[in-house]
Amino acid sequence: MTELLDVTVTAISVETTARALEVRAELCRILGPEEVFLLDDLHPDRSHAGTGTVVGFGRLAEISVTGDRVTVRGSGPVADLLRARCGRTTTDPWAMLRRVTALFRVHTDVRGFSFGFLTTVGYDAAAYMEELPPRQVEPDVPDLTLTLFQDTLWFGRQDGPPVLLRASGPGLPEPLPLGLLRGIPDADLPVPDAPAPLEVRDTVDRETFLGWVERCLDRIRVGDIYQIQVGHRIDVRSALTPEEVYRRLSARNPSPYMYLLTQSGTTLVGASPELLFRLDDGLITMRPIAGTTRRDPTGADNARRVAELRADVKERAEHVMLVDLSRNDVGRVCRPGTLAVTDLMKVEEFSHVFHLVSTVTGTLDAGRDVWDVLCATFPAGTMTGAPKLRAMEIIDEIEIERRGLYAGAVGLVDVRGWAEFALCIRTVTHREPSPGDHRYATQSCAGVVALSEPKREWDETLAKMGAAHWALTGKELA
Questions:
Q1: Which residues form the Chorismate-utilising enzyme C-terminal domain (predicted)?
Q2: Which of 426, 430, 438, 469 is catalytic?
Q3: Which has fewest Cβ within 10 Å: 63, 366, 424, 468?
Q4: Which residue has the higher pLDDT, 433 or 17?
Q5: Annotated catalytic residue: which of 123, 226, 406, 440?
Q6: Domain extents in the chain
Q7: Is 382 a catalytic residue?
Q8: The CATH classification of domain 199-239+283-400+428-473, taken from the options 3.40.50.10960, 3.10.20.30, 3.40.50.2000, 3.60.120.10
Q9: Average confidence (pLDDT) over 123-133
């Protein structure tokens, strides 16, 4: 193979009545779950929709970084070339990833995403961006995983049938026949009932968490921090499979950034409401979410709750702090004079909660790229607090479990520079599958500011985990 790999991406209309989840299920049956991913945009309010719904398949290679160790999985010329470029260790994964994306010369007239990597970024990847205390590396949970796929099938990207973006070129294998995609039936997969869970265990009890919040308030009172995100995890053993959990979650909490994917032995089932950032034709967009209130299950009291959220001094203060942090993050990599805030403190509705949401934009500065934007914005201030570095140090002192992929990011990176990442929240992680006994975990945080009441912060964590917990157990969190 040559030093540069020429890739031609062709857009092909695929006449099918099958929906994305049904296509994913059939391709998983043929290829296996690690060979297929689903990113699904299901939120009914199109004003804050994601880029679209996509099923990716035809895995060419997977790169994972854990501590300083680099692993490239896959066979064939593309995987071999990536293996040679990545090496076995790295002290600068961003320089390595720039070398990787520079390997490909893409020929296409497709805008936005055409060919690139499904990417997950664990919370602890912050250690590559900031000077943080030494940490215990979890060998089974990579800090970064990037999977390169040959084919992506897009639903709703344009009017008409789904569009297949198919990569071809030297070193790329023969793709799946188009007839296979066109022949997938519309199966109308039902939403399964949830059997009684085999076990449910919280990593902390309520009183311990209230004590954590008091410790955070002490740090705020002495001026150490202004705001901090502190949380906990619930572990569940269930007979439900990840696909069944996804079907339940998508029915209960349709969100703009839903996903069902497996990388490095971990399956993510998510319904994220929050964009970390989008980089599209040089425009950086962030949509920080901060400020939460529960929805009324009957709907009768929702108008009052929304009005109280808009007027709540504590929630507004938390939101303004984190919008300011997003402005600082975007400002590090955008052209001077292009930073802007729009839709300040808009209220958006989800299955269990209302959120305050704002939009921050800026034009990418000359000499910057997608990896600079990721380093500038990660982890999201809505997952840490402010000042970001000090808040992360205190989180590391207080929380008793590593966050892993929670509070990280999930998204797509095109080798030409386009990218879109969602925060890895409202998410269930699944490892060590065994028939009839699947092990899941879901996490959430609450934002602590000077006006916080510990009990309300505990309640906020339960509200945020509500949809995922219901998907796993069929029960509401009190």
A1: 206-464
A2: 426
A3: 366
A4: 17
A5: 406
A6: 199-239+283-400+428-473
A7: yes
A8: 3.60.120.10
A9: 87
